[in-house]
Design the sequence.
């Protein structure tokens, strides 16, 4: 199934909306690899947690093509979940325990819950968290952190990197059987033909929105300054992991 990319021009097209009480949302059917998802989006939201962007679809396709990278991963958290579409796709495709997160905003959380229900899923666990603030979980145990198209606001890079550093460097392994043998020794992505092994834990990010090269590099140089290694895996998908060993609990 071809991947449908969202066009902002569709905001001005008429579409059916099951939520008759809201004129600020539109519900659309989007084609993801192997499935269609019904997603309610905000026509406008002050926090920009509203629409599906190209990185979401590209990342979904990349994950399907590289599903072996998810082997052994038991728990995933998504940063900047927006509508929750990527998390919903990951749960339905791979059956992995996934938690969504976004700004401390009731509308955003409720909309993710709505999109879970309309696609036949129980409401996924959700964390209200603004990047840079104290994370509500003191001992994060997510094997994998994911995100798509979250580098739009350059001023937020230091806060995003602060949150990433906490999630990756403070990782506490919940289930010793979840981590493959020697996974804690993996420091970086290893390439062997088409086979790749990811560090444990790791942050996978798809970035398809285009901004200036200099602005974009501020994020990656900021990661390096924070003791995080960033590696390009192709198709504008990046893996970020700590340079030093993490505590495995």
Sequence:
């Amino acid at each position: 199934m071809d991947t449908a990319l969202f066009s902002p021009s569709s905001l001005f097209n008429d579409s059916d909306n099951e939520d008759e009480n809201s004129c600020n949302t539109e519900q659309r059917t989007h084609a993801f690899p192997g499935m269609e998802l019904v997603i309610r989006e905000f026509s406008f939201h002050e926090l920009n947690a509203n629409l599906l962007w190209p990185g979401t679809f590209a990342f979904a396709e990349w994950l399907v093509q590289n599903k072996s990278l998810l082997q052994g991963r038991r728990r995933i958290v998504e940063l900047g979940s927006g509508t929750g579409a990527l998390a919903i796709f990951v749960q339905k495709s791979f059956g992995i325990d996934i938690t969504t997160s976004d700004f401390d905003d009731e509308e955003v959380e409720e909309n993710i819950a709505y999109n879970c229900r309309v696609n036949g899923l129980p409401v996924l666990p959700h964390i209200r968290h603004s990047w840079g603030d104290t994370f509500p979980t003191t001992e994060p145990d997510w094997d994998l952190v994911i995100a798509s198209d979250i580098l739009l606001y350059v001023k937020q890079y230091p806060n995003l990197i602060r949150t990433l550093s906490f999630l990756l460097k403070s990782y506490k392994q919940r289930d010793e059987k979840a981590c493959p043998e020697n996974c804690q020794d993996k420091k970086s992505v290893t390439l062997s033909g088409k086979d790749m092994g990811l560090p444990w834990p790791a942050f996978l990010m798809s970035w398809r929105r285009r901004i200036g090269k200099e602005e974009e590099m501020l994020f990656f140089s900021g990661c390096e300054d924070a003791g995080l290694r960033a590696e390009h895996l192709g198709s504008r998908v990046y893996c970020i992991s700590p340079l030093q060993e993490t505590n495995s609990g």
